[in-house]
# Entry
Amino acid sequence: MYDVETCLLFFAKAGTGPALPGEPANTTTGADGAPAGTTGGAGTAPAGNPFGGQFMLIIVVVLVAMILFSVFGQRKEKKRRAAMLSAISKHDKVQTIGGVVGSVVEVKSDQVVLKVDESSNTRITFARSAVQQVLTDGGVPAEPVTLDNNT
# Structure
């Protein structure tokens, strides 16, 4: 590996880096007053950005789009869940977030009573927000509630 002094010596000799301590700075100029090695004049173009001038604008637009899609997706999911919870009625088969599957016996404003065992008539009271999904007879999730007014 190279040490720092070797690298600085290399760049100082190449004229592309800072001058080493104790050496004069590379301040040679051409006939027109420009630093040596550069061509002055009207035909000189400034060094361009390799990604183009609009790179940062594109990055900002992509980030804003990602944030908007995330926010709108969350809002849509929240509406779908609220519609599902408000549509729960007696005799629906539901699964809670804890994995308990049961049949709805009673629906209160913020609670749901589930019958989880037919033989012993076991009933458990859950918060309405604990219901994860409404199941069909086969135990698979029911079709999601659509929010479209077209159907």
In short: The first strand starts at residue 93 and ends at 96. The chain has two helices and five strands. The first helix runs from residue 4 to 14.
